Amino acid sequence: MNSKNITIIGGGNLGSSIAKGLVQSGLLKPEQITVTNLELHLIQHLKDEIGVNITTNNLEAINNSQIVIVAVKPTVARILLNEIKEPLQKGKQVLISVISGIKIQDLEDILVDVPVIRAMPNTAIAIQESMTALSFNEKGLEHKDEVVEIFDQLGATMIIPESQMPAATVLASCGIAFALRFMRAASQGGIEIGLSSKQSLEVAAQIMKGASKLIIENGTHPEPEIDKVTTPLGVTIKSLNKMEHEGFSSSLVQGVVSGHKKILETES
Asked: 6-160: what CATH class?
């Protein structure tokens, strides 16, 4: 893996986050990574900050790489894929798509006989804390170990059937926004009860980190951990019951379900 070059087509938020995560993980050297974008000035910061190669020439970048990550918007995906299909079909590159809503079959319809992997990370990939779901076509499975190695360096990975990708997209990718909205709301509550804005945000961020590590490292379910701090007649249970009365859990569940329906509509 350390001898291979990677091209990331599309230097937006997600593409840039992947580049930063790969460099920070130490899996690849900056000079092994090339990021492309139609407007070079939009990715100049990547060259300045982490030293990766940047270019507007997709074909040249692909020809110099063994792994190609496509991170463009769904609206331009098919046009882009048709532009790059010839070198991909002639070469031996592995294509990893992080394009939301574009199925493996859609990719195979354009890219004949190309190893294809569909990946759905989130923006925490920039700090190597993504939750990334992976699905493979038959040829892509031949490269499973090296693809998992890449994304394991950038957080945690989960291999799933593609039929579960819409659900993984909502919970893993959109879920970052859900968690951050909870953090913001909790910090606003902290301000109302007397903490400064800075103090409230620091506390809210740390409690989310601590809660996550309790579940990940102990392998427990949230409820036993909640029980540890909900004493009879106590403050925690009073607060939780008020939140549930106002629809806390229900609104979150409905938000996740609503997002899933939206994705299914987009993919149909």
From this structure: alpha beta
